[in-house]
Amino acid sequence: MVNTIHLVRHGHHAMLGHRLCGRMPGVQLDDRGCRQMSCCADMIGRTPAAIQSSPQRRAQQSASILAWHFGIPVEIVPAVDEIDYGEWTSLGFEALEGDTRWTRWNARRGTSRPPGGESMRALQQRMIRHLEQLRRIQTDAAIVIVSHAEPIRAALLYYSWIPLDDFLSVDVDPASISTLAVDQAGIRVTQINQRVLA
Fold this sequence. Notes:
CATH class: Alpha Beta
Radius of gyration: 16 Å
Helix content: 25-40%
Number of strands: 6
Strand content: 15-25%
Structural class: alpha/beta
Strand order of the largest sheet: 3-2-4-1-5-6
Largest sheet: 6 strands, mixed
CATH superfamily: Phosphoglycerate mutase-like
Number of helices: 6
């Protein structure tokens, strides 16, 4: 069965740190993000068995750079999509700072949700279901999943036995690689947030 899963966050884009993009359409990598993903491919090393991607454009672009490097196709997987921020999608962080719901969401990720959006618990459940399904794939090569900070963080928290409310204890930088090891006993975290130099 598969023995390694690399969770890769998409590369840098111009709105990163300024706007809560979520599932906002059309968000794409900038030049820096493209360079990061090229470096990321070098860090992965051996050709993976598969490259899977979130449906979001920035993730698909990132996965395509990896796919070109390794000469394999990209599979679009809705289960690893970005969290749905509902009414908050596309808002600037300055606007969110005055919203008491935003404050509550960041204090209690385990029990709250964005207005009209998806809870962190639901996000975590769909990520874990997908990762557990990958355990059954027969291959000795790694699987690469290109996703977003929150889905990757949700998975790392789960396999590290860290509560969702402590979500800030795990960093997931753009183009970073976090690695899960898979064996008969289950899935465990072996590396978190390995950063590229680009």
